[in-house]
Amino acid sequence: MPSHVPPDRSLAIGLLIAGLLLGLTRQVAVLARTRRNRARADQPVRWDVRLCEPLWSRASAPVAMLAVAALLGAVGSWVGSAGLGAGLAVTVTLIGLGVQSLSERWSPRDLMFAADGLHVGLRRCRFVISWSDISGAETTPGGDFTEVRVLSVARAAGSAAPGDRPARTQVAYALYDGSEVTGRLLVAGALAGLDGRTLARAIHDAASTRSAAKAN
Fold this sequence. Notes:
The chain is an alpha+beta fold. The protein has two domains: 7-106; 110-215, no CATH class. Helices cover 55% and strands 15% of the residues. It has seven helices and six strands, in the order ααααβββββααβα. It has helices spanning 7-39, 55-58, 60-79, 82-106, 153-158, 165-174, 196-215; strands at 110-114, 117-121, 126-129, 134-139, 145-150, 183-188. β2 and β3 form a beta hairpin. α1 (7-39) packs antiparallel against α3 (60-79). The longest helix has 33 residues, at 7-39. It is elongated and about 70 Å long.
């Protein structure tokens, strides 16, 4: 019997172990995030403070992608060759990172509840959705995200800082719903340390209260 593991199988085993460890790490992060969100469900949302998802929680998505890449690479190495496995792992990683980068370009990075509206931070700019421009906030299927409906994309884009054209364009794309007048913003509840249902309720209550107060 051979006294060592063939090279192709060595890479497969290494990638398999890496994939399992990454998958376990991701699962631990998800469970910790769920527990954190539940613990804060009954607490009031902090105002005039930037709310953002901690790095350990935000990293769960790329870690999951790396786990999948490693596991697919392990399969490729086992049934094919080390070159096939490594190439498959690298390809899947690059595609995943590209998709992640595009998604983060239009996704909120932080939120702030303030008197003049919901402040939203994107990758290169910030903007404000006034409370009177929020027509509703609902939880998406699965309960992890909140969909905020916006009455005027133009007004939100006009509040962008910096106020240059690229920033306004980024805001318009982030709010795009197909109408080019109204908009929708998809926000992960974890961004505010909450589940999607709690965040939706907080935004709805703030919009209703502030809009009523302004009307009076």
